[in-house]
């Protein structure tokens, strides 16, 4: 009989304890919900201004050589990226422009960089600076696409671009076909300069006219 009574009391206290804990958690949850709603409302109502940090902008390129299209990667160290401050990221990108200085090409190979600068970019007209600006843009504050105007070799062409925004960094990507800017002679000059030492497994020296471009820039966000 004592055993049965002890079991009943144990079950009763256990149920009371569980009820008390459950009730306490619900109370805490109920109290937290208004606070979360206030925080969300503040995020919606906050006013922010976005700007580009041009000092941290960078540009990377991937070109192709030989019959098997072996990748050659590098960057251009000197560039200036600017844009007007905006109250949303889409307008910030829409007003961006860039000046690229190809003499600072950097593929981690000093000899190759000298040839690219001298025989490729050096064979072009008015290409001490490559200029780019956004022409059209559509999307969200996270991703989208559009076009930009790119000027090199005294020719301006429209280029398709895509963008993503990740952790307050903008990444702009595009593909270039240098023949669109009449760069066939520049490609030929580079190929001749490199053919003695740079051939594929088939003995041929080929520099493909296309390249992939990636531009990165940091966003500065200031909110009231």
Quick rundown:
By secondary structure, this protein is of the alpha+beta class.
Detail the topology: elements first, then pairings.
Blueprint: H1 2-45, E1 48-65, E2 70-76, E3 79-82, H2 89-94, E4 97-100, E5 105-106, H3 110-120, E6 130-139, E7 143-152, E8 155-166, E9 169-177, H4 184-194, E10 210-223
Antiparallel strand pairs: 1-2, 1-10, 2-5, 3-4, 4-6, 6-7, 7-8, 8-9, 9-10
Helix pairs in contact: 3-4
Could you name the key traits of this structure?
single chain; 224 residues; alpha+beta; Lipocalin; 2 domains; elongated; disordered N terminus
Could you describe the 3D structure shown?
With 224 residues, the chain is α+β, with helices and mostly antiparallel strands. It has two domains: 1-45; 48-223, Beta Barrel (Lipocalin). 32% of the residues lie in helices and 40% in strands. It has a ten-stranded antiparallel β-sheet with strand order 3-4-6-7-8-9-10-1-2-5. The longest helix is centred in the N-terminal third of the chain and has 44 residues, at 2-45. The chain is elongated, with a radius of gyration of 30 Å. It starts with a helix and ends with a strand. Mean pLDDT is 85; it is low at 1-22.
